[in-house]
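Forum: Protein Structure Q&A
Topic: Joint prediction for protein chains with partners

I've read a bunch of threads here and the consensus seems to be that you should model interacting components together rather than docking separate models afterwards. I'd like to see that in practice. Below is the full input, 390 residues plus whatever partners are listed. Could one of the regulars post the assembled result?
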Amino acid sequence: METIKIKTNKSQEIIDITHTIAEKIKELKVKDGVCFIYSPHTTCGVAINEGADPTVKKDIINKLNKFIEPEDNYLHLEGNSHAHIKSVICGNSVSVFVENYEIMLGRWQSVYLMEFDGPRNRELWIKIIN
Amino acid sequence: METIKIKTNKSQEIIDITHTIAEKIKELKVKDGVCFIYSPHTTCGVAINEGADPTVKKDIINKLNKFIEPEDNYLHLEGNSHAHIKSVICGNSVSVFVENYEIMLGRWQSVYLMEFDGPRNRELWIKIIN
Amino acid sequence: METIKIKTNKSQEIIDITHTIAEKIKELKVKDGVCFIYSPHTTCGVAINEGADPTVKKDIINKLNKFIEPEDNYLHLEGNSHAHIKSVICGNSVSVFVENYEIMLGRWQSVYLMEFDGPRNRELWIKIIN
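Posted by a regular:
Agreed with the consensus. Here's the joint model:
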């Protein structure tokens, strides 16, 4: 298992980690397999979506905040229930294919760390199965 | 890695692809493993849910449109931000078990392609690990 | 493929199944791999999130019920459309890493069965790939 460290800078932020993941996959020298990218946290998520236009990321954060409001009558007293809920619906891991030692992504796809309760020092765990 | 091609016919549509996936798994002649079904797109999703009653699919699309409205003050100018957001929360891949060369699904489960920005020619990538 | 049985007690309930999964993984004596936890149902989900404070679970259920209301003008006549929709957005499977024969989870993470249409007798399918 490999670990990647990511420092987030805002309370809510979608960070494109495609390059970091792609480099790590190359390093691991697996010709063919499936790579698992796993967040060990409970207030951020991992997702794959459009990386070209930065407005997409803003629209995702804005809309999630509309139906999972950061401030509400939550019972959990740490003030980050919304981040736990978003983490559950986005998911805390993704899998991507590896072929010829390289990550396989669709033309418009990027791998995202979804920060919902930052800024924090996050890590992701990586494992490839062949 | 295998590729399956699916033509969608509506702007939003849930298509049952169980049969196509099951056939592809049989073709690949893997006795025991996990099959990954991966969408390389950013405005559709892949999910597993009830296939028996077609009203379930309609209820899913209708409700998603209630809290992720197709038209809103989105910043992304292509008019499909709602589809990106739905793709993030549904996820762009699923995994199913393979035993005795066959897909393992629960009694009521079907594999769905979730089209949120069609009609389009979509493809899914398939890989089995044993 | 292994099977775990879980009896749920309420119509909606988040059940911490970490201990059961961890024990099953130990039993399977796989030194290093990825464990897949798969729900063969269509009205419950599987997720990984915070296990320490029980109010987080309540906040998740309460908020999901706000934007995916149990009662609405659903077309599906069984009265559980909300549960199908929640199952789609939470997902029906998770994967966790196995190292030195043990489940790898983040400090605050628990594995959850998300019951959206109980009480029922549920089962989860488990497979480890190394």
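DSSP finds three helices and eight strands in chain A.
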